Amino acid sequence: MLKRLLGHTLMCREASRLLSRGEDAQLSWLQRWRLRAHLRVCAMCARFETQMRFLRTAMGRYRT
C-alpha cells in the first residue's frame, strides 16, 4: 500500500526537474518526500542540488 501511495522511485531526470521546479514554486509534500528519498541514494543528484544551492546563494549576493 505504501508503494502504491508513493509511486515509483524517482529517476535522475525527474529528480533534476523537481529540483529546478522547486526553485520557482513550492513542491507538494509527496514530491518533496520522493525527492529527498532519491537524494539520499543518488550522489550525482545530491551534488547537483548542492551546485544549485551554491548558484542561488551566489546570485543572491550578486544582486545586492
Structural features, described:
The protein is mainly α. It has one domain. It contains four helices and no strands. The protein is globular. The model has no long low-confidence stretch (mean pLDDT 86).
Key phrases:
64 residues; single chain
Summarize the structure.
This protein has 4 helices and no strands.
Sheet-strand content, in percent, reads under 5%
Tell me, what's the shape?
globular
Tally of extended strands? 0
Derived from helix and strand composition plus strand pairing, the structural class reads mainly alpha
| Uncertain spans | none
Order of helices and strands: HHHH
Biggest β-sheet strands, sense, barrel: none
What's the structural domain tally?
1
Whole-number mean pLDDT: 86
Layout of SSEs?
Layout: H1 2-6, H2 12-24, H3 29-41, H4 43-63
Helix pairs in contact: 2-3, 2-4, 3-4
